[in-house]
Hints:
The complex is a heterotrimer.
Chain A: H1 3-14, H2 33-40, E1 65-71, H3 77-91, E2 96-102, H4 107-120, E3 124-127, H5 136-144, E4 149-152, E5 162-165, H6 168-183, E6 187-193, H7 199-212, E7 218-225, H8 230-243, E8 249-252, H9 255-267, E9 276-280, H10 284-292, E10 295-299, H11 306-317, E11 325-327, E12 333-336, H12 348-351
Parallel strand pairs in A: 1-2, 1-3, 3-4, 4-5, 5-12, 6-7, 6-8, 8-9, 9-10
Antiparallel strand pairs in A: 11-12
Helix pairs in contact in A: 2-3, 3-11, 4-5, 6-7, 8-9
Chain B: H1 2-5, H2 10-16, H3 19-38, H4 45-70, H5 78-96, H6 98-122, H7 127-146, E1 151-152, H8 156-163, E2 165-166, E3 169-170, H9 171-189, H10 191-201, H11 203-208, H12 213-239, E4 241-242, H13 250-260, H14 272-291, H15 296-317
Helix pairs in contact in B: 3-14, 3-15, 4-9, 4-12, 4-13, 4-14, 5-6, 5-7, 5-12, 6-7, 6-12, 8-12, 9-10, 10-12, 13-14, 13-15, 14-15
Chain C: E1 14-23, E2 26-36, E3 40-45, H1 52-59, E4 67-72, E5 75-76, H2 82-87, E6 90-93, H3 105-110, H4 124-137, H5 153-166, E7 171-175, H6 183-198, E8 202-206, H7 210-216, E9 219-224, E10 227-233, H8 239-247, E11 264-273, E12 277-285, E13 289-293, H9 300-307, E14 315-320, E15 323-325, H10 330-336, E16 338-341, H11 345-349, H12 356-361, E17 369-370, E18 373-374, H13 376-390, H14 406-419, E19 424-428, H15 436-451, E20 455-459, H16 463-469, E21 472-477, E22 480-486, H17 492-500
Parallel strand pairs in C: 3-8, 3-9, 6-7, 7-8, 13-20, 13-21, 16-19, 19-20
Antiparallel strand pairs in C: 1-2, 1-4, 4-5, 9-10, 11-12, 11-14, 14-15, 17-18, 21-22
Amino acid sequence: MLKSVGLLTTALVALPLASGMAQERLPITNATCDELAARYEKLPFTDILPLDAGPVAIDGEEKPLTIGFSQTGFNHPWRVSMLESLQAEACRHPNVELVVLDGNVDVAKQNNDVRDLIARGVDAVIMSPVESAALVPAARAVMNEGLPLVVLDRDVPTDKTLFIGQSNVTMAEGVAQKMADDLGGKGKIVVITGLQGSSPAVDRNKGMENVLEGHPDIEVLVTGDGQWIREPAVKLMEDWLTAYPEIDAVFSHAEESSWGAQLAIARANRCGDGIRHYTFDGSNAGFKSVKAGTFGADGNYTPFIGDIGLRAVLYTLTGKEIPDAQDYAEPGKTLVLPDSPVVTAANADEWIGRGWGDFEPTPDPCR
Amino acid sequence: MPHEATHPGYGAMLRRIGAGRLGGLIALVVLIVIASLLSDRFLTVPNLLNVLRQIAIVGILAMGMTFVILTAGIDLSIGSILGLSVVLYAGLLESWGLPVAITLGMLAGAGAGLVNGIGVAYAGIPAFIMTLGMLSFARGLAFIYTGGTPIPILDETFYNFGNGYFLGIPIPALVLIATLLASAFVLGMTPFGRSVYGIGSNEEAARMSGVPVRLYKTVVYVISGGLAALAGVVYSSQLGIGTPIAGQGYELDAIAAVVVGGTSLFGGKGSVWGTFIGTLIIGVLANTLNLNGVDPFVQQLVKGALIVVAVFGMSRANRT
Amino acid sequence: MPLKLNASLVTPLLAVRGLGKSFSGNVVLSDLDFAVHAGEVQALVGENGAGKSTLIKVLGGVYQPDRGELLVEGEPTRLRSPRDALARGIVVIQQELSLAPHLSAEENIFLGHFPTTRFGTVARGEMRRRAAELLDSLSIEIDPSVPVGRLSIAQQQMVEIAKAISLQAKVLVLDEPTAVLDEKRVATLFALVARLKAQGLGIVFISHHLEEVFRICDRVTVLRDGRKTGEAPIGEIDQEWLVARMIGRDFPAHARQARRFGKPALELRGLSRRGEFEDVSFAVHEGEIVGLAGLVGAGRTEVARAIVGLARPSAGTIRLHGQDVRIDDPGKAARLGISYLTEDRKAQGLLPNRPVRENATISSLGRFTRLGVLNLVKERIYVREMIGKLDVRSAGMGTEIRYLSGGNQQKVLIGRALAVEPKVLIVDEPTRGVDIGAKQEIYALIEQLVARGVAIVLISSEMEEVLRLSDRIVVLRRGRVATTLSREEASEETIMRSAALAA
């Protein structure tokens, strides 16, 4: 669908990045290294696999290193933010150059992208797969070349150097638990999922169900597909408000959908119902909405793991051991990240500025 | 003898009583009856106004698509043009103000349509290919402009346009109705509109009759692009956000509304009234499914089945 | 001498008895008896709308009869589909051929019943051999390996017939097979029909050209208004007998006074277009009909297209009322008062799924427009008047034009051409595919126009038509003017000699 976007961005990104030029705008994020350096401080996981700034030496030699990054796609700011953290780390090491490819949310394209990276002769590959199983061939190709492969966010069920991800299931349990507590274990809720069938939507739903099993008095009135975005959620909520006179909370898989639902509530003059929102994504705007009281909780699914990925690659290339890398159910090793706390009114202030995205939340139409 | 000159089958009979349009209307009425039986909340004023507002965006897109399909063309790029216009409104609003932002966004939409039109009418590129290219190109521009990040819109006037009421009717619905009336007027009451039908019915014959075929075909794509940008105004003002992914896949919803409304994909046959009814049918269906809490997977299935059944019924009514 | 049986004593291959068929209350066929015998060519004639095509569709299994019965070799049979009919050996060859253009003749012939090898693949060698045999036995001379899209219409028709024979056809229905053929090809076709007849096939032949009926048919059945108005062995009747039964009235006697011309309206001077025609010069005066005659491919239509701006001449000038003009498109031509009635009604004339009204006014919308808005009332009044004047018979001006008969369609297109109030009218094959009654009406119309001072260029392959209407005849041969004949000089013979023979 977005083939030409891919071509365009690929063309832009493929331009050699002179890492020394701090003022140069980096592709896609359009940030300079100076700007990223300022943000680096606020990244949540810089203390994991710490690495000093400066050139990276392999066997005492500071030769140029090219690291390939194959991203699912850049159609969502969350994905752009992941790149931002990766670029921020790369900026700290003058001899590290990034090659970024846009998978266009297309497994076939991403498989090709990864093979292109290998063909270009990159020194290591970082990949955030569109879909777990479908990227196995690409992952095998990297491992067969003997290159380090770090997989971010979504795992691949095959051998890899390291997988770094967060659990949508436990995060959803946290958000759902907060909702159950707020409701006092009793109430009627509606669920707006992410794109139906996608793995984060499946996992977030599973986490919610795990918690609701213990709360039989919380009734799920209806579930609809919000596709991660705002527009379908408005229609769903509008119709549900018509159909159900009593709704206590909206459990939504995405902040965008929650804002859409709130818009529908305002338009239906139901602001007075006190419908609460429980949501995910972990953007700064989302945290502000938590602080403002629009959202009861925001699952902090941070995209800022790209920097860890790059550091893991550099650790591997320099022969440094990755502490805390564990064996797990899948082939290869995993690095377990500490669960980011669910952001609620209690800790919102602490987290604003450490989420992703620098846009403001839509003003709450009920306020 | 005169009755011998034509061989009216049942299809011709149905057509003579206007079943092409009436069929859609009957289907809509049946759907409404079923909907009100399934939920006592369906036939309430707020819900019906909701439906009108919900169909506004796709409805406006479908009006433009009707022009294009009537010429036997297709415009796959309208969802992306909507996306492009939406980010321009959001991005330009703060520094340039509302009127400039709207004007430039609309010009961008019409401009993308112009490129489509020139490609199709003058360069002879098949409409499917040309607009498929534009689908990707316009979306790419939207992403480049925003860097992939949605731009929030904080303008009060703009928000009220998308969410307010005029004479008790949601403003987006009024925009849709105004678009419908203007389109119906242009198609039915102007030489251009008449020629649009002629081009779709037999392009060569229209050319031989002195119709400026290339010019008019170009204009049709400009209208389609312009209306996509107008739908973008409704989108961004309603949602308060300029996101580059706005309108993904809407071209298919618009095509569905057009064909359910009885317009032939082969051109020359159909009307914006039919498209309006087609849009309503799809909108009422979605509303009903939501009111009854139907599983989202099943919703897709029902919508798909409806499109096929509706078009099949239409083709039966049009058989010779 | 082969023994010739009295056909009526033998069981017919295919027959209908008391056939009735109506559509939504309109009776299209009633109480019709019709039969084809082995070794017989049975003509089916009648005006468009008389019920011929409905009868063919019943014979071909497309429609089921409402009343009466259909007998195949004496046995009452129900043909539920064209496939059913095919299985019983009844093959209908439509005007529009149903060949796959990218496949070769041999592949088309065996499409659907390819000879196969034991592995289930197509046995190419055998297919080739059998196709060659078949074409040979029918004396059809074409290269069976060439894609049929590259063959001429006449050759494609032959392939279609060969295909029918390969399907073991017993009855062959030919629906206006000669409409698309020139004289020489007609002869070839008729030779083939004669051979098929000798092989014992029953043949139903439909044609508007009555002289063809007399050339190859044994019997003729005349239809009018869905009833049989006559049936006779061909030897016992003449053309007048046929025409009277077809139209239910006699021809008006054809008398003509000499016309008085005005000033030159359209003059071509050395008009050329590379590869199509060269150095064509002639003039048409106000109130004059100039016939443009010549064989198919002589460049007549090409000249007309250049005049109305559909193709750009490479040299020469066009003068209109004494002034040089440059015409870039048909719109410009219309504004200058030149109208062109196309030879290819279907491809270039009709807006098939639009109503009669819109078809009539598409070229003259300007005259109903004020301030950019159409005056629909004015348009309706105009079209109603036009329909009356041209005697267009249809259910109404809202009927889609594709439901009209060929003759009525043509009248609407003439109306379209006239709506721009042309000073010069170019009519290209104005009566092609039009039945006899409508033909006469179209002639009368052309004569009325010329009497009002319109200059007319008539392009026609029908000698009779050219001779009857034209004041002068310009004969083209291979893109050049071979000669110009006055009315007195012109005859079928002089025209043919100039058109076909080298100077």
